[in-house]
Amino acid sequence: MMNRAMREHRILKKALGSAVGSEAPHRFCVRTALPNSGVSFRLSPNAGKSLSCMVACMLLTAFDVHSSVYEVDQPATADTNQWTYTVGETGDYQIGLAWVETQSGGDVAVEIFKNGLERIKALYAPAGEVTRFEMRIEELYPGDEIAVKLTPNGSTYRAGYQIAFGTPTFDDLPVFDVATYGAVGDGVTDDMAAIRAAVTDARNAGGGIVRLDGSKTYRSIGLTDLTVERLFDLNGAHDLKIEGNGATILLHPPDGLAGLHDCENVQIDGLRIDYDPIPYYQGTITDINVANLTIDIDVPERYPVPMVGTNSNPKPFFGRSFVPDYPGARSGWGDNIYVESTAVNGDPRSIRIQVPTTANGVPMQPRVQDAYDNNATEFVVPHLLYGHRDGATKIHSCSRVKLSNLHYVRMAYFWLSIQHNTGPITLSNVDLKMTEPETELLASWRDGMHIKNGRWGILIENGDWDGAAQYDDTFAIYTRRQVVVSVAGNKVTLKPSVYDRESWLWQAGDWASFWSADQETLRGMARVVSVQDLTAPNYEVTFESVPAGVSANDVVLHEESLNRGTLVRNCSTSDIGTETASTRLRGTDMRFENNHFDDFSFRLEWSSTYGTPRARDVVVENSYLSSPEGSLVLDRPLGVLFKNCVIDGLEAQVRQGADNVYFDGVVWSNMTGNIMDVVSDSHVWIFGNTTRNGSASGLSAHVSKDGSSTVTYAAPAGYPDPVPPGPSDFSHALGPVADSYVRDGAASENYGTEEYLRCKYDSGGNFTRQSYLRFDLSDVHGAVKRAVLRLKVVSVNGSGDTHTAHGVDDDSWGENAITWSNRPALGPPFTSAAHGGVGDWVEFDVTDAVDASDDLFSVALVSDGSALVGYGSRESISNAPQLVVQASWSYGAWSNQYQLAQGPDGDDDLDGRSNIEEYAFGGNPTNELDTGSALELSLSGDNTVLVHAERTAADSGLLYTVESTDNLVSNIWAEVDPGSAVVSNGWKTVTHFFPTLGKDQQFLRLKAELQ
Question: CA-based angle 694:697:699, to the nearest 5?
Fold first, then answer.
């Protein structure tokens, strides 16, 4: 088994339960990538006076991350650090390339806050390790704040990260209408030159919006000599939007829609993409002659008369047989059968396909025999000229690029190539669906999305793909591992495990992980200093240090190009066409949420042939997986969690030393055999409400394993990880607005500018000290659930003693005016605590004293003993006091935040939505343009799909109910079961499926009520 103590990143991340630590000086390096990025850096009042980089700071200037808003690269420190950013543009942001290295001492608490209230990520970075904390932060608005805070527990650490704005924006850019350039849009005229001219002028203008007419069909032909062209050739484009408005693009094969390289702030939106001529045809099989290796088909009238002849295409040229799941079905399976030539077999639409004896070293006779034995009914053939050529849409070395609302009807070859990107990439509502699935079997001849070597994780959402739209990989998300040739001091010579050298991926400041050759043991992590190319394919990397034990043939992974943070959500596949649509995951830190995959093979795949690493930290949550002919294969993952998923008819195959494989609350349905097969020193945990065909009992009887493997039918120790008492939805970490101490022996002296607060009791007088602190609670709304005063001990003279926190009703005292003589009277005591030793944090629970309706809170510390104890004051900065307040987020608090004049049923901004509706769905009740999340209705197979948002806080006071009826006249509504939910950033997205098969009408309603 792998050495878990050395693991760099875990599937079970520890989450902090409370905001801990104190504010400290801001130590950072800052890079503003875009002059008009709209994102600013905000210093807190305690931040110091200089924005210059520290001497030890390393800027990654060798690698231009276009969308990087700010870059932090902090030298080693033992202080608490917090960086705060004020957002200037509406959209989605990512924290990426994010790491903390705990060099000595205890762990480090990492927290990320939104608007100072909502903590959206929290984890512990263990001692002696490098921990990653990438984070996606969505739907931010101007004035919102992102805060990153690191609090050490007696440890020395360093950290770095970048914040990138991922949403393209095109405010105040000129519009270039393609009609002005002669584009006709009649579906006949070649509009390629006109559209390209509009794009050229937009680029020459420094950016623009190229607008198409949504009612038109634009044909793009260009060259007809089989040269691969792309309608939108956007190499180096910046600040450019293709605004399709629903227009149709007819491409001429083997052309592609778009090529993007080194692009920034680019969006292609609102297009339907098809091909003419169609780059393949299909026909009904009339005869299969296994001995002669021929297949006869009849081609229907909807296709042009097929071209016949011998294939001269240098690319692999194969057809696909189709064996239906049952007679007449449009789902089934088939095989790749290579085509040597095609000939007319009597009628021009009757075609005889000649299959070669071997292709790529593989005998074809067994495949033809299988088609014969299994009664294959149809065969799909590539067009003799256009099939199997590269017409992919490519997004390479780009940042802040979005493809949205695109419907590809078919593809000539590969679909989307998304590689080596340096910033956020988004695919939103990008579909690959046939218009006539009742007759067509294939939409794309090769793979779907190849996603490789991304420095930032890609977001793929709301995509709908026919089952065999990508006959193999719906998406392959991967990178390549490198192999150690030799080690000399801090220099390591590497060679690619397969394919080309990619030494240019490695940049100063990047992290690499070193593993044993089988990737069973993590040797350690190291940070890159420089890269030097050697005789191909080798290259040399100089590191700050090389972990002990690294030797030749060890595996090295470039941790920054693992597509870390990739998220696939709300996507679906259908069961149309031949099967084996699939995913192949060969990377780290990827999530699948709220997906519905029919006829889909799910694979975490390790391959020595393709030089891929073992998948790490993959989460599949609230998703449905099904495939009668497919598979669920977990080859050698080092951490994968399936949570609240439905696995329909698939046996999980866990093999080759898979480790940390978790199934939490997984429902296996329609199982006739085992739910799992675990072999080859693999280790699995099955727990939660996991069931097989509705039963949670006797699961072990349906799990097979060999003697080297373990299956544990309980949650792993500490799952979910034990955490300190935590906040509900909102946590405030407040610094004092005033603090001082007073002394009876110096009754008129003021100590408001000192870097410490002192406490002592002297029965004889003269030496008693008491400390006073005041906090501003104006940003705290709702009911206070817990409030803790935290003070850090900076000096102790003596031992023993207890300190007691007293309320102070008078908030008018001045920090630079308070003395023993004029100090305000002490109120009742709240809580007491021992002062501890130097470096300790002492906590006083003052929950009963804090009232969110009072804007100010004063408290005094009184000692019962003679030890002179010093706490850090707010002037001490890194040792400053803190009041941690956890408050609920009720409707009343929300209403107070916006200072609403009307009640829940009112409509303060007159936008037609009541205040309670905006509270329930995330709107702004003072902005008529911000009405929150809308309901989404769509059709998926035989289901109506309803998607809506809900607040996650248990104390929100809201009850959400979904009801349905088939008859509005009766007005009889039935409440439906809760749908599957995906939780993110204080909200959850809930999806309901309503069967519609055989129904003439169905009505749905969603209610959100205050309790």
Answer: 90
DSSP string, 851-886: -TTSSEEEEEEEESSS-EEEEE-GGGSTT--EEEEE
d(CA 780, CA 778): 6
Question: How confident is the model at residue 629, as a pLDDT?
Answer: 74
Per the DSSP assignment, residues forming a β-bridge with 678 are 654, 705
Tell me how crowded residue 200 is: count the other CB atoms within 10 A of its CB: 14
Q: List pLDDT tens digits, range 860-911.
A: 999 999 999 999 999 987 789 988 887 766 777 777 767 788 888 888 988 8
Dist. CA 156–CA 80, nearest whole Å: 10
pLDDT of residue 311: 82
905/835 Cα distance (integer angstroms): 51
Q: What is the DSSP string of 153-181?
A: SS-EEEEEEEEEE-S---TTPPEEEGGGG
Phi, psi of 302 (to 5 degrees): -70, -15
Distance CA 385, CA 453 (A): 32
Q: What is the pLDDT of residue 728?
A: 34
Closest by Cα among 360, 364, 370, 365 to 332:
370
Q: Which amino acid is at 58?
A: M
- Peptide linkage before 537 cis (omega within 30 of 0): yes
pLDDT tier for residue 678 given thresholds of 50, 70 and 90 = very high
Say which DSSP state 902 is in: S
What's the DSSP call for residue 936? E
DSSP codes, 714-762: SPPTTSSPP--S--SSEEEEEPPSEEEEEEGGGTT---TT-SEEEEB--
DSSP of 592-645: EES-EESSEEEEE---TTTTPPPPEEEEEES-EEE-TT--EEEES-S-EEEES-
In angstroms, the CA 269 to CA 274 distance is 15
423-460 tens-digit pLDDT: 999 999 999 998 888 888 888 887 889 999 999 999 99
Residue 891, helix vs strand vs coil: helix
| Residues 704 and 743: beta-carbon distance below 8 Å | no
Contact between 813 and 824 (Cβ < 8 Å):
yes
CB burial of residue 372 (10 Å; 0-12, 13-18, 19+):
middle
Joined tokens for residue 519: 């990737």
pLDDT tens digits for range 487-536:
999 999 999 988 777 888 999 999 999 999 988 899 999 999 999 999 88
Q: Which residue has the tokens 């504010």?
A: 23
- Paired sense of beta strands 676-678 and 652-655, if any: parallel
- Do 398 and 405 form a contact (C-beta atoms < 8 A)? no
| Phi-psi category of residue 117: left, alpha or beta, with phi > 0 → left and psi -120 to 50 → alpha | alpha
Percentage of residues of the chain with pLDDT beyond 70: 89
DSSP code for 580: -
Q: How many Cβ atoms from other residues are within 10 Å of residue 1007's Cβ? A: 12
Is 537's pLDDT higher than 80? yes
Q: Say how far apart CA 316 and CA 663 lie, in whole Å.
A: 40
- Please give the model's pTM, rounded to 2 decimal places: 0.72
Query: Does residue 934 contact residue 986 with C-beta atoms inside 8 Å?
Result: no
The token duo for 492 is: 């390591």
Question: Are 780 and 789 contacting, i.e. CB atoms less than 8 angstroms apart?
Answer: no
Round to whole Å and give the CA distance between 510 and 556.
13
pLDDT digits (tens, 9 = 90+) for 302-328: 999 999 999 877 666 888 899 998 888
Burial class (CB in 10 A: 0-12, 13-18, 19+), 118: middle
| Among candidate residues 260, 180, 178, the one with its CA nearest the CA of residue 220 | 178
- Average pLDDT for residues 672-685, to the nearest whole number? 96
